[in-house]
Amino acid sequence: MTLEPLARPARLRPGARVAVVAPSGPVPAERLERGLDLLRGWGLDPFATPHALDTHPRLGHLAGTDEDRARDLQEAWCDPGVDAVLCARGGYGAHRMVDLLDWSAIRAAGPKAFVGYSDITVLHEAFALRAGFATLHGPMVATEAFLKDEATQDSLRSTLFAPESVLTLGLDTAAALVPGTARGITFGGCVSLLAADAGTPGARASARGGLLVIEDTGEEPYRLDGILTRLLRIGALDGLSGVVCGSWEACGPYEGIRAVLVDRLGGLGIPVVEELGFGHGPTALTVPLGVPAVLDAPADGSRCTLTSQVPALI
Question: Is 104 designated active site?
Answer without folding.
Answer: no
